[in-house]
Amino acid sequence: xxxxxxxxxxxxxxxxxxxAIMAVSSKEMPLAILAxxxxxxxTSIFFLVLASPDVAMTEAAxxxxxxxxxxxxxxxxxxxxxxxxxx
Amino acid sequence: MKMKNSIALVLIVMFGIxxxxxYERYQTQTALNKTAAYYNSKAPAETGAANVVxxxxxxxxxxDTLGEVTVxxxxxxxxxxxLRQRGKAKTPKNTTSEILIxxxxxxxxxxxxxxxxxxxxxxxxxxxxxxxxxxxxxxxGLMILANPIGNIQKxxxxxxxxxxxxxxxxIGLAGLILAGGFLDNRILPLGNLGELFSAGAIPIIYSLIxxxxxxxxxxxxxxxxxxxxxxxxx
Amino acid sequence: xxxxxxKIALILGMVLMLVGLWGGFTQxxxxxxxxxxxxxxxxLNILIVALGYLPGRTAPILEGDVVTPETxxxxxxxxxxxxxxxxxxxxxxGITALMLVFALKLNQHKKSLDINQYTDLKW
Lengths: 87, 234, 123
Known about the structure:
The structure holds 3 protein chains of 3 kinds.
Chain A (H helix, E strand, L loop, with lengths): L1 H24 L3 H21 L3 H32 L3
Helix pairs in contact in A: 1-2, 2-3
Chain B lengths: L1 H23 L9 H14 L4 H9 L1 H21 L15 H23 L8 H18 L7 H25 L23 H24 L9
Chain C lengths: L4 H22 L3 H21 L21 H4 L4 H31 L13
């Protein structure tokens, strides 16, 4: 049971590091924002395994929900601005 | 710009060495240190809350929570000031699909009730004011996206936020007069452990914090949604 | 080196912090810089919570017959880092929101999100 938990957590950590590198070095913005939302969600799972349900709930609601939403709204507003001025 | 990249690499390597030193001296603990042992053994009896993290955030370290509420209030105020519109605010018309409006009509009341449940039961189960407020903020965000009933009334959000903040300070001052100190929760009777109406003033304080955080996050989203792309310098 | 959950979380937190810092230093798009800062914040929060973990113990919340007020001190982990990280996550979101609004206003002013255009304060 212990080794199973260790293997699962190591796999999740590897996925998170790959997602972080993808988020920082990709050319398209929506892919980067989705990768950062995935990082927040997997962070929330990590908090649950580290025996902190309060922190897991906060990170899931604020990190994976509101921060990704805010990034997409600002992305849309800035692309709208630059398209309006190119016409 | 090869010079800039190599300077950045050197800085990150130095920071990495500093972090590695922290990792080297880290040993997995086997026993609680004195502060944690005090909180774990005395908190349920002194404050009457079943959730030790809640009792630390609201009573033992209540001043830090007051500071955090102040920081969020400043953020909402600065966002509202920077994105102010001259004249009447015209929200850009979103043409949303019928699936989105129907799903939003079902999901929004459920989310608001879930958020209220989370911050009312903050002292019994994992949860609390900040989590419940964030859930309510997400529900209002869905309302902004789907736009089922028109614009968000921002004056109602301002009134809810101001009244909850003011009542929170009044309860803190009542703790100074009636009980041990600022933001003490013994102004109301402690009750039995595990019931809804227990732990003194903790449910009331956390409900007010939940309403305040929810309305602040909603007003940030509403301010961003209402900006049109005017090119005048303001 | 015996591997346990909190050592894995410690390494993960440190690597996320380094990746976020690298993104903040070398990217050119304003939104990418703010995204890297948000990743740095997540890594830091994992680091702090991992420092308070004790193996074999459970969360510091009373729960019926499993965790009673008498056994709480010997069965639960440290509650103080959790209270600190709770505050830190919310304030981190506030800072990210403010940075994004500034980026929106700057884009309205100069029509570009490239950070090489904003060299007004450079000496």
